[in-house]
Prior knowledge:
Blueprint: E1 36-42, H1 46-57, E2 62-65, E3 81-82, H2 91-98, H3 100-123, E4 135-138, H4 142-158, E5 164-166, E6 183-186, E7 190-191, H5 194-207, E8 211-213, E9 220-224, E10 227-232, E11 235-244, H6 255-258, E12 262-271, H7 276-282, E13 288-291, E14 298-301, E15 308-313, H8 321-335, E16 344-354, E17 361-365, E18 368-372, H9 379-393, H10 421-434
Bound molecules: flavin-adenine dinucleotide.
The site of flavin-adenine dinucleotide (FAD) has 44 residues, from helix 1, strand 12, strand 16 and helix 9.
Amino acid sequence: MLAKHSSNYIHAPYWQAAIVPEKTEALINRRDLPDRADTVIIGGGYTGISAAITLARAGQKVVVFEADAFGNGASSRNGGMLGPSFSKLGENGLERQYGREQVHATIRESLSAFNWLVNFIRDEQIDCDLQICGRFRGASHPAHYAGLIEQASEIAKIVDFPAIEISRAQQGEEVGSDAYYGGVVYPTDGAVHPAKLFQGLCEIAKRDGALLFDHSPVRQVIKNNSQFIVSIDDKKITADHVIIATNGYTGGPFGKFKRRLIPIRSAMIATEELPESVIRSVSPKLRCHGSTERLSVYYRPSPDGKRILFGGRSLGYGDCPQIYHKYLQNFMTRLFPQLSNAKLDYVWSGKIAYTFDHVPHIGVMDGMHYAMGYCGSGVGRANYFGRKIAQKVLDQAEGYTIFEEFPFKTRPFYTGHPWFLPAIMKWHSLADRLGF
Ligand SMILES: Cc1cc2nc3c(=O)[nH]c(=O)nc-3n(C[C@H](O)[C@H](O)[C@H](O)COP(=O)(O)OP(=O)(O)OC[C@H]3O[C@@H](n4cnc5c(N)ncnc54)[C@H](O)[C@@H]3O)c2cc1C
């Protein structure tokens, strides 16, 4: 059944309704930019701000440049779903290439990353609607169910990460759709209000002394002996260290990074406020949800439990809400016919960055530190990697991460424009239909 579409929506993240811009705005005018800093961070999302907090707390003079408004990349646009992201790692392929021990170490560290962020939010008392609500991952094809169970039991041999098998007969307790063939619940996964989390981080960074400059795109970074000269439009600043934290928005001045990333647009819709009975008819336990499809969708109730937030592909590289809202709304009502008459209040998109090996990357290139390529699972990872990269700048042993052992590879002739994506998407779509 197709939904009646209403174009009467706001083309902006639902999350913006709850935020206070002053919390992320720059405190000082760009005229007052200092001539030098210990570290300049390029990119004001979770990665950049998390790094800024660690560096500022260690006493460094830190400057963060953000091309747009702070958080207006993916960090205030995402679904706020939080977990160790094991399903994103593609561990079988990695194991063939790098060996079992290295892959097991990434699994252990992925869980530590998730736990670290949850503890950080609690310790710092960041008011971001953190809920350990659990996640249901549905098998989109009968053959996928066994794979989900097997993956859960393999993970359980490596780390203490509970997973509950849910048969097709039981799944009505977890999700109000017949589209799945059973699934698995990860009860310790969580959710946050991503923009409130981001604002909380910005407040900490500013309180700890980091200098945040919005609407300040970095145009060039030049290495001059042991120092860097960083140029924005009308100013230059010298720094001992530079951190690149631009993820899906990595652009021209950083061609070497850009050609190692595959930028993809991901989109979301938020329904109007709905009665609790309707929300629970979709998600009886108010969990986060995903599936085993290659071109999967994800959804969850809003933190106040009044709306369904539903995300997935944006169908193209540009931000074309008139196209992707229809695709997502049709997908949502195919899964949940009970939402056929639900109007949409918010429609938005943002850019994520995939890597050729599906692993996020952290390290040093041309003397510049970087952390990026979270493959669509960056709420936990970006915050954790931001901290790690700062510890590396500080030359602290805790900065070590198993993820630095993976070489950050590109492909011959690839410049950062993923011309091959439409063909890959078609292949994935066919594979989904056939249940591969
Ligand atoms: C619609 C959507 C849904 C998502 N859902 C989830 C989810 O539920 N769970 C999850 O874990 N992850 C999710 N993600 C992914 C997650 O949001 C990202 O991985 C994470 O926010 C990346 O953080 P970041 O700081 O590295 O990058 P970003 O937040 O994207 O920040 C990069 C910043 O760099 C800036 N920049 C770029 N070039 C320059 C320059 N030259 N000078 C200065 N600044 C520059 C950009 O303007 C941008 O603000 C989702 C993403 C999207 C778009």
